[in-house]
Structures are given as structure tokens and as C-alpha cells.
User: Which sequence fits this backbone?
């Protein structure tokens, strides 16, 4: 049984922080393709188009018939046939996390794989123990197979090896950027329920009342902080105060107004949207990413993730919300750049893509719309599983699936 | 017709001579090129030859990057009419031997230098590992980065359970090899090892413990393959190649490696050689980990896997014993000099049967079995080979 993680003690500010490293990072193109799917929570392996052979490690051609390979979802069961506990390593990341348990797993899907092994898989279980494999992303954003006990065990998420593959909010301090809106408030409450130690909840205009204020102020663990992501100085000041205490950052800020491109759109709305959505994201990244990167392996409440909640229409554009979709598109592009930078420091960058939220700015949009609570659940789920792309709600799932299958067609459909 | 039933040609017309070892050091500031030159220089002294005499070269190294044999011939002033680069690490010595012999037999070359050389800088071993192979980059080393220790720990864990082999069997092999190493002046390990010390060693990656692991180092090994006439003209002692086998990626569907490619071709080896395991005066087996030594003893026909524990307990593997094993101490006690680790089994066998040992002589040694194993591309060794060498003439 996994020992529950203790609440971390206050750190001695005079002590040198533990420097975070990432596990060995170079990967083949095929392994990167596996990572992209892992980030969406899929358990995939390559299958031959011609002979249907399932293969691993990632290859570029089928080893049985030399046919071409495609990624397919696979059953996640496996039998552990050998195991070891690594007690010495020359790698800086693993040296800091020894001993490290690995095994050889015979997958129900066919191939054999070397896998990380959860502490609750019974000792000496190799030689027949049944396990469930999870396809995770490591701190460097690379795919990793992790063997879990077949059935849930107490405090399973607290396993020290598994925790390095997630950004579980338990005992962590989170900055949620926009507390004046229903999404930010729901996300803050959801994180507290998921075990976050503190949620710093941004308020762009501390002198003005806002809906939901009473329940937010009554919620233990939520601390409102002044933060206007449209103002570089405001972001820098908060980073100066909180810097080394933000373990997870969730950007829920966004600016949504109706309007077209040549017809019915306002230039000022577009400018305001770009300032909040796009420039705001860069302000947050520049103010918080370096301090988070310096604390990426700093114990139980090490800095772990930067999450951005954006509109799925950033992938496609959207008729009637052209400016909002444009700023979401720019936001996703910036986030991809940030993700690449943070892969080198061990901080995960995650994207939650939402359809129209059931709020005052989508009054004329037909259902289904996304309830703020759904966004909160998606954020917590993404963090706890270490995914990096999570669509929330039926519309976002539908748009993402169509976009993955045929991006140009989906762009046309969504802008008609 | 089954192509494997075609009889292989003998190695008549080719002999192996002049085994040389450039003494190993734990770390070296020199390059692979320097060590390669040192090996050629030692060959030159042993055979009285220079660059213009060598018309064929077989080369193996992990640390010569960005050069291959191509860069090496220009760097070291050779103009060969036949050359080969063999990137198979622990299997490279046996493979070089059989390729060079065919080249000499066919007349494509007369005097082939077979050389393996590697340097070992501080941190070279880690760097070699991180770039070793695509599969290990994608799917092995990011799993704890235990290096080969972890991969062989998984193989050992399964092997011990599957065949009832305990750590005491591995202790017997390692202690015997250390005993053999004590007379080898070049061996990096110079202190005796007891079974108690072996058993009490710290775990590295369970069930692999400290004395199951080799010490990476710098070093070089080389030998010559030529015609019997040329060997005589040079005044060199010579060995014949009675038989060889080679196999890669055998048994890909085994979940964990319990056997090597030897098992595919073992009958061909002994029938071509016209002798049997009992006729061997020694075994020079590839010994990156003792489990692989045990695997070879079974796969090469010395005992059944189910009887390994009993066979090891009954047998004396020291130089004076009933089956001398890795008579120079092997890599476990002499050090693992990269690709040269896949050559030292060949050079040591040659020295014993040509009666010019570095340390103690196996009494009346005339026949040796040499076995190579290399390249953990993912979860197992991919390349295997073996050769039976016999004394032709001692000069």
C-alpha cells in the first residue's frame, strides 16, 4: 500500500533549492507520435496496415511483413514477467529518485515492453503478476509505459514514481488567473476539492464586487490576489510576491465577444481579446515560467504544470466569434512554444480546450454548452493524469475529432 | 532445398596469429584513434610488419565517432585492398575472425589486421549509452537509466526463476574468473574475490550486484589473419579455425531472453568442428554478466539449462580446473574496453593455444571455444557468434 504523502513543511529560504532535471530526452519521430497520443490519454501501439501485427518499441515499418504502421488504441492489460529495482544510475534525474522499479511486461496486445512499475504491484510479482498499463508522459513530455496494480489501491496516486509523471494538485499551490468569472471560480473550488493546499485566485479589479464573491471568500484554501493579466506590471508584481510558491498555474482568463471579420466585428474587441488572451499568456509565461522551472523537482510541492484553458475554435475559427477564435489560435501557438521550452525544465504545459461555456457571453449560442464545473473537472483530470490535451464538453470533443481527421474540412464547417 | 543444410566450406588456407592486447586503463585521455594506433603498433612489433604489409583491415570501436574504418585507414596510413567495419561490440571478435578468414581464403587479402579499440573518458560510458540505439533511446534508458545493469537484471531475474539458478552459481563463475585474473598482469581487478564477498556485495539493480558488473575501461585488442605460408614466412605461431557460427536477432518472440542465437546453429558448429564440448581445453565466453556466461555454457552444449546449477557446482573453472573459463579473468575481472571486450576472448584463446599466455598457461592447451555476444539494442543481446580454434603450429 502506498504511504499517503505528508503535507510538505515550509521550506527554509536559505537552503539551496533542489535542481530539477529531466530524464533522457532524445526520441525518434515515431516515439514523438506516441507522445502526442499519450498526451490525450490514449493507450496506443502501432499496428501494421497489411498484416495487423502489433509492434513495440516504436518502429517505422512492420517487422513481420515490412508493411506500413498506424497508431491504434490497444487493450491495456499485461503480465509482468521480470522485474528489477534500479539502485544506481548515471542520469541526473533518476539518481535523485532512486531506487526505481522497472519490469518486463508481456502486453495483452502482443509485444513485450520495459515498463515503470508502481510500488503497489506486489513484490516478487514478476513471473505472472497481472498489471494495467498506463501510457504516461514523463517530465520531458516523452511517452512512458507505467504498470499499475490491476485494481485501485489506497493512495495510489501518491506513489513517488507515478507522481513524477503527473502534476497531481494534492498538496500543491495553484494560481488560477481569473477569479471574477464562473470558470475560474469553479476551477479554484475543484482544485481545493482535489487536495490543493492553496489556490491563489486572481482578481483584476479588487475594488469592484463580482458574482460569486461571497462563496469564494468563504472557501477555505482560496486566497484572492490582485492580478490583471492585461497589465504587465500587475503580473510582474504578483509574480514577485508569489514567485516561488506557485506550483501549478491555471490560466482561465479569456475575452469573448460576438462578431465577424468584415461584418459586425469591432476592432477594439479584437484588440482587447488579443491583449488578454495572447499578450496575457506571454505576460504570465515570462513572469512565472522561470521561477517554476527552477523548482520543478523540489519535493512534494515541486512546481509541476502550466495549464491554459482556451477555446477549441482556436483550431478552426468560428463563425460569429471570429475575433475570439483568432486570439485562441494565437494563444495555442504560443502555448506550443512554451511547451517546448518547458520540456527542458521539467514543467508540463497542458491545454484544456473548451467549447462554448454556459456564461453571459454565449447567451445566443445553442446548447450543448459547457458548465464551468465541467471545465474544473477537466483541469483536475488533466493534472492528475499528466495529459497535455483535454477537450471538455461534447462540442470540443467533436471539433477536435473532426479536426484531427480532416483539419481543412473542419475549418470550413466551423466558419460557415 | 533448405539453404542451411548446405555444407559450409572449411577455413583451410587461413590461419590466425599474433594476438596482442594493449594494457587497459580505467580512464584514458587518449582517443580511439590513439588506441587503434597502439594496437597496430603492437601487431607490428609482434609480427615484424609495417603499414605497407597490411592489405586488409577489420575494425570495431564505439568511440571513434565520427570515424569508421574509413577514417581509421587514412588516419593510420593504411592502403588496404579489403576492409570491413563491424559494429557488433561483444560479437565483433568472432565476426572479424570469420570474415577476415574468408577474405584471405578467397585471395581478396593476404594479411588482415583485425582490431578493436576504445577509449574511455570520464563520462564516455554514459554518452555511449544515451546514443547507443534508437530502441534503447526510445524504450529502455528512459526507464530508470540503469544502463545495461538494469536490462541484464531483468534477464537475470527471469533466468534465475526459470532454471532454478541461484546467486551462488554466479558467485562460482565470478570467483573463478577473478582467480584466473590474478595471474594476468593487465587485469584491472587485482584483489582476490571470495564467495562471501560476492554474496555480500551491494545491489546495483536487483538481482544484479556489484561483482556481476564489468568495469568499463579503455583498451585495445588485435590479431592477424593470413595464409599459413605468410605466417611461416613471418615466423608466427598460428591457429586454425575449425568452425564458426553467427546469428542475429534469434528468437524474437521470446518474452525475455533465455537463450542466444547459438542455440540455432550449435549442431552445425560441432559437426563442422568435428569435435564436441568435452574436447575443449578452455572456454572463452562473453562475460558482460555471469547470467550470459551461464546461458552460453548451456546453449553451446556443455550442459542442459535445467542442470546449470549442478554443472556449475561440479565444475572447476579456474585455469588449472576441468573447464578453464575466461582464463585472463574475462571482462568481469580484466575490464570491459568497449568493442575490445568482444575481442579479448579471441586473443586470450589464441594466446593459450599458441602457448604465449599473459598469465597462467592452461596445461597442454590445443583447442578453445570462443563465444561472442553483443549489442543490447533494446531488451536483449542481438548478435551472437562462436568459433572453435585449434593450435596449428607453435613457432
Assistant:
Amino acid at each position: 500500500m502506498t504511504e499517503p504523502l505528508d503535507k510538505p513543511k515550509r521550506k527554509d529560504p536559505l537552503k539551496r533549492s533542489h535542481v530539477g532535471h529531466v530524464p533522457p530526452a532524445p526520441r525518434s519521430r515515431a516515439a514523438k507520435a506516441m507522445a502526442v497520443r499519450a498526451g490525450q490519454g490514449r493507450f496506443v501501439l502501432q499496428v501494421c496496415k497489411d498484416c495487423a501485427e502489433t509492434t513495440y518499441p516504436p518502429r517505422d515499418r512492420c517487422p513481420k511483413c515490412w508493411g506500413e504502421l498506424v497508431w491504434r488504441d490497444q487493450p491495456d492489460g499485461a503480465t509482468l514477467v521480470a522485474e528489477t529495482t534500479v539502485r544506481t544510475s548515471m542520469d541526473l534525474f533518476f539518481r535523485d529518485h532512486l531506487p526505481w522499479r522497472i519490469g518486463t511486461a508481456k502486453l495483452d496486445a502482443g509485444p513485450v515492453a520495459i515498463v515503470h512499475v508502481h510500488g503497489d504491484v506486489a513484490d516478487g510479482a514478476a513471473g505472472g503478476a497481472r498489471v494495467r498499463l498506463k501510457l504516461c508522459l514523463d517530465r520531458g513530455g516523452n511517452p512512458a509505459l507505467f504498470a499499475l496494480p490491476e485494481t485501485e489501491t489506497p493512495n495510489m496516486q501518491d506513489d513517488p514514481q507515478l507522481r513524477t509523471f503527473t502534476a497531481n494538485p494534492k498538496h500543491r499551490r495553484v494560481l488560477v488567473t481569473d477569479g471574477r468569472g464562473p470558470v475560474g471560480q469553479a476551477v479554484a473550488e475543484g482544485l481545493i476539492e482535489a487536495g490543493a493546499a492553496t489556490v491563489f485566485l486572481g482578481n483584476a479589479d479588487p475594488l469592484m464586487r463580482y458574482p460569486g464573491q461571497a462563496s469564494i471568500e468563504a472557501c477555505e484554501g482560496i486566497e484572492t490576489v490582485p492580478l490583471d493579466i492585461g497589465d504587465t506590471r500587475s503580473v510582474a508584481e504578483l509574480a514577485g510576491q508569489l514567485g516561488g510558491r506557485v506550483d501549478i498555474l491555471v490560466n482561465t482568463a479569456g475575452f469573448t465577444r460576438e462578431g465577424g471579420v468584415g461584418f459586425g466585428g469591432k476592432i477594439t474587441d479584437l484588440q482587447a481579446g488579443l491583449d488578454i488572451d495572447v499578450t496575457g499568456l506571454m505576460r504570465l509565461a515570462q513572469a512565472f515560467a522561470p521561477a517554476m522551472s527552477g523548482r520543478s523537482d523540489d519535493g512534494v510541492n515541486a512546481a509541476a504544470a502550466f495549464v491554459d484553458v482556451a477555446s477549441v475554435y482556436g483550431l478552426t475559427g468560428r463563425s460569429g466569434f471570429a475575433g475570439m477564435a483568432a486570439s485562441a489560435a494565437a494563444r495555442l501557438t504560443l502555448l506550443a512554444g512554451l511547451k517546448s521550452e518547458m520540456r527542458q525544465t521539467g514543467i508540463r504545459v497542458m491545454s484544456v480546450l473548451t467549447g462554448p461555456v454556459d456564461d453571459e457571453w454565449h447567451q445566443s449560442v445553442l446548447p450543448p454548452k459547457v458548465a464551468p464545473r465541467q471545465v474544473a473537472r477537466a483541469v483536475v483530470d488533466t493534472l492528475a493524469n499528466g495529459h497535455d490535451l483535454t477537450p471538455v464538453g461534447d462540442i470540443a470533443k467533436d471539433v477536435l475529432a473532426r479536426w484531427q481527421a480532416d483539419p481543412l474540412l473542419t475549418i470550413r464547417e466551423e466558419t460557415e | 532445398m533448405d539453404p542451411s543444410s548446405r555444407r559450409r566450406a572449411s577455413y583451410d588456407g587461413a590461419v590466425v596469429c599474433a594476438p596482442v592486447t594493449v594494457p587497459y586503463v580505467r580512464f584514458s585521455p587518449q582517443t580511439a584513434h590513439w588506441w587503434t594506433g597502439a594496437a597496430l603498433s603492437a601487431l607490428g612489433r609482434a609480427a615484424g610488419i609495417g603499414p605497407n604489409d597490411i592489405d586488409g583491415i577489420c575494425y570495431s570501436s564505439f568511440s571513434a565517432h565520427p570515424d569508421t574504418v574509413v577514417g581509421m585507414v587514412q588516419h593510420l596510413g593504411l592502403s588496404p585492398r579489403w576492409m570491413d567495419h563491424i559494429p557488433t561490440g561483444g560479437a565483433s571478435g568472432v565476426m572479424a575472425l570469420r570474415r577476415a578468414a574468408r577474405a584471405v581464403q578467397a585471395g581478396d587479402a593476404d594479411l588482415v589486421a583485425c582490431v578493436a579499440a576504445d577509449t574511455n573518458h570520464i563520462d564516455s560510458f554514459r554518452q555511449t549509452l544515451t546514443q547507443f540505439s534508437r530502441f534503447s533511446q526510445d524504450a529502455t534508458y528512459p526507464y530508470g537509466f540503469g544502463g545495461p545493469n538494469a536490462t541484464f537484471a531483468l534477464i537475470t531475474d527471469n533466468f534465475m526463476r526459470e532454471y532454478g539458478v541461484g546467486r551462488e552459481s554466479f558467485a562460482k563463475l565470478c570467483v573463478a574468473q577473478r582467480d584466473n585474473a590474478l595471474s594476468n598482469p593487465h587485469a584491472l581487478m587485482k584483489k582476490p574475490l571470495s564467495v562471501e564477498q560476492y554474496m555480500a556485495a551491494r545491489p546495483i539493480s536487483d538481482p544484479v550486484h556489484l561483482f556481476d558488473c564489468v568495469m568499463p575501461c579503455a583498451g585495445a585488442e588485435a590479431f592477424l589473419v593470413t595464409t599459413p605460408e605468410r605466417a611461416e614466412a613471418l615466423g608466427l605461431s598460428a591457429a586454425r579455425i575449425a568452425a564458426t557460427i553467427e546469428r542475429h536477432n534469434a528468437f524474437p518472440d521470446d518474452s525475455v531472453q533465455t537463450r542466444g542465437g547459438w542455440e540455432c546453429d550449435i549442431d552445425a558448429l560441432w559437426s563442422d568442428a568435428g569435435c564436441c564440448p568435452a574436447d575443449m581445453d578452455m572456454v572463452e565466453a562473453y562475460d558482460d554478466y555471469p547470467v550470459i556466461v551461464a546461458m552460453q555454457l548451456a546453449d553451446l552444449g556443455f550442459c542442459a539449462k535445467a542442470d546449470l546449477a549442478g554443472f556449475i557446482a561440479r565444475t572447476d573453472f579456474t585455469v588449472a580446473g576441468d573447464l578453464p573459463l575466461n582464463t585472463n579473468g574475462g571482462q568481469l575481472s580484466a575490464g570491459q574496453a568497449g568493442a575490445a571486450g568482444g575481442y579479448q576472448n579471441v586473443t586470450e584463446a589464441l594466446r593459450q593455444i599458441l602457448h604465449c599466455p599473459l598469465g597462467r598457461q592452461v596445461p597442454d592447451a590445443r583447442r578453445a571455444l570462443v563465444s561472442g555476444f553483443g549489442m543490447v539494442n533494446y531488451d536483449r543481446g542481438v548478435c551472437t557468434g562462436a568459433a572453435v580454434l585449434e593450435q596449428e603450429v607453435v613457432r
